[in-house]
Amino acid sequence: MMKTAAVSPSEHGKFVLLGAAHVDRRAKADGPFHPAASNPGVLADSPGGSIFNAAVALQALGCSVAFLGARGGDDDGRRIAAEIEARGLRDLSTTFLDRKTPTYTAVIDDHGELVAGIADMALYDLVGPKLLKRRNVRDAIAAAEALIIDANLPAETIAAAVEAAGDRPVTAIGVSPAKVRRLFAVLPQLSGLFLSRAEAAALVEVTAATNLGLIAELLAELGTRRAVISDGALEAAILDAGELVFQRPPVVRPRDVTGAGDTLAAVASAAHLGGTSFLESARRGIAAASLRVSAPIFPPEDLPAEIERLHEHLTDPTTRR
């Protein structure tokens, strides 16, 4: 097994996060899922969103997090504001009092895998570049060591955030096949890109059935320097400055896959900022994502220790599929 010394993310961990925080609603089937039919199951909801999920993981690593998003003046918006405050995150978000807060609804089968998801998130399209010019936002970015953004933001806001970051590393989360191309113009400027297979395929304009290695190579041709393309329980592709390897995640029993990619991005970004190589950072992110999907409660009491425990049992990366 490949072993390297861990670098504590909390040694270098002042982040500004820009993107989604809303209520995730999940409908999980009790038994085998039958499409186009009524399925017995359980409904649940909790605070979520790509950047909120990333913030939860970063905070559990001991990182400092400032958060910029948008919400409405409804009960969901108040719930998210209260959750951000309760977690001690610095909240730079804007509230549109006459709008409803975005929401994500997932249908999950009895194995914890996503069957379908509906994202009602039009409000995020109102997060324009002007919000980045607010004094408190400019001060937060100036004090930060790194930024994480997600593709829920409009393309012009993404570009403005990358420009505002200056020489600070910026990583991005693809969010969905429908939105991932909002990242297209800034791909060469990103220090890390975190995508699902479907998102990566949409970004390079091929089908998700295309060989994963070819998808990664096409991504590199677009100027992407470092990326992780996850594929559920199958091997993930890790692209690092032209080098491509594949990493199988730990074998776990998934409870709910929601937030796995966001957790991967956060943990990998923190480790890389702390001085760990991108490959080893990605491997720790993959371990953390496996914890996210399998743990009854996330984050666990000692997230860094749990990540290291799973990381030690990862198989070595391979250069061929």
TrEMBL record:
Keyword field: Kinase, Transferase
Keyword Kinase applies: yes
Domain of life: Bacteria
Record-given protein name: Carbohydrate kinase
InterPro entries reported in the protein's UniProt record: PfkB_dom, Ribokinase-like
PANTHER family: RIBOKINASE, SUGAR KINASE
Gene3D superfamilies: 3.40.1190.20
A family per Pfam: PfkB
MF terms (GO), sorted A to Z: kinase activity
Organism: Jiella pacifica
Coiled coil: none
Residue span, Carbohydrate kinase PfkB domain: 16-294
